[in-house]
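Quick board copy: two proteins, each given as sequence then tokens.
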Amino acid sequence: MDADSMVMRVRVSGRVQGVSFRVWTRDRARRLGLNGWVRNEDDGSVMALIAGDETAVSSMLKDFWNGPPGASVDAVDVETAWPETVPDGFEITV
């Protein structure tokens, strides 16, 4: 990864399941050129791993607060992750 790259693990809480949040995240991440994945968690949150240049990652982190229509985001918790855990492309996982 480049020196300007970031890898973040993000947990989005609120009404984020059943509103196409994963599809919205995948599509938005791909448009921004990010790598990673997104999945639903058993506790009702959505977890994502996003990696890319600092500008794109920052934009995605801001976008998580809005989400798709129908979503109601209560919290976006972010932590740094290890670059070797990042897949190529961006996918929805289980």
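And the next:
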Amino acid sequence: MTAADHVIAIDQGTTSTRAIVFDRAGRPVASAQREHRQHFPHPGWVEHDAIEILANARATLEDALAESGLPRERIAAIGITNQRETAIVWDRATGEPIHPAIVWQDTRTQALVGAVADGDTGRFRERTGLPLATYFSASKVRWILDAVPHAAERAGAGELAFGTVDSWLVWHLTGGPAGGAHVTDVTNASRTLLMDLATLEWDPALLAAWRIPEAMLPRIRSSSEVYGEVAEGPLRGVPIAGILGDQQAATFGQAAFEAGESKNTYGTGCFLIVGTGEQLVHSSAGLVTTVAYRLGDAAPHYALEGSIAVAGSLVQWLRDNLGIIETSADVEPLATSVEDSGDVYFVPAFSGLFAPYWRPDARGAIVGLTRYSTKAHIARAAVESTAFQTWDVIDAANRDAPAPLPELRVDGGMTVNDRLLQFQADILGIPVVRPRVIETTALGAAYTAGLAVGVWRGLDELRANWHEDARFEPRMPREERDRLLERWHRAIEKSLDWAD
């Protein structure tokens, strides 16, 4: 009998969906990817078509399996990782969304957030680990219930379902209206502003504050267990056995399982996670507290997170909105065609500033422009902004942690840019380490699914799969680093107090 010794991960991100087949050594053996459209119907609004995302997930699963040449019997499980906080509300009877998905970057709900905060954005921080902000799911759900006629009544009657993208995909893949599993995992639930971090359950007081009926919510499960089986298609009968929010998945894929271990992912946004083990630690420096993972019935592991809204999406903005590059890959040669940014700084606060500032009033700003400035200087300032924002969240993490981070493990699409990683090491003053497999988000989802069905027996096996690809040591003099950071923080000040 053929052994089931491979796992497929669905990596459903903000701009695309990928499926990657991994072997027992954690090596990718086949992959497929499809982009989905970004919809910006009004300033500050960001929407996705949930049906398009589902179609892409199904297509990439089939394409990756076909490319691998493996029979279905070799696939032990499917893991899912997803853009977090993005909210979808759908009809349980038809499986159709009642409104476009409201994306995590969307800021339309600021008035709702302000009303619930009532002057105190930290009102529920002790319970949820999160500030009250448009970033998280609760206000998006409430907005949909208010905006769509009769939605609130139908949700209370159990006719509508809410979920982040993981819930949407699992429900449909396991049968949809014909008995699909309506579940989420603890990491995604911890990003909704509706779950108590200590109990890992939906909190009645939080539901009441947002006026969200519990009848529409998924069941909260661990990050590694069998939730159901694929109902149709070439992978019919394969269990879906792992779910992690994308940043937690990247951390897991980096084998950063224990307290003090960390990673920074450079994707659409940029996200630092520092593990705190089984201890639930609240930040005093502007980070959020989140669930890192939970394996089966074991105790949950927690983490501190520094969330940056705009990183790789800034490169897309240079391409799509300004037209100064034709492809995203063009940004590195353009940025490195000049020796420095020419004293230009780019604060990409398109959705306000996230950690550690939490300033929804901030907006994007390019400062320091002169007649000397060129598109190359703007491109370089855009790339360098990711490194500066990372310094801000790592500085916050070091203030919360008992000891400063000795090095930074990195992953995500932007880490193919060696110049960025060297500049990052220079600005941080610590080594930056890139692993051999940079698609650690998908790998983390594969690991949790594989652990649930016995492909891997424990965390030590996963640690043995991690290998270093490149290490970037800091070379910049301390005086120059301090000067650049001082200018960056002056640029941050210029971006504040813009939006009402």
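Board note added afterward: The longest strand covers residues 28-35.
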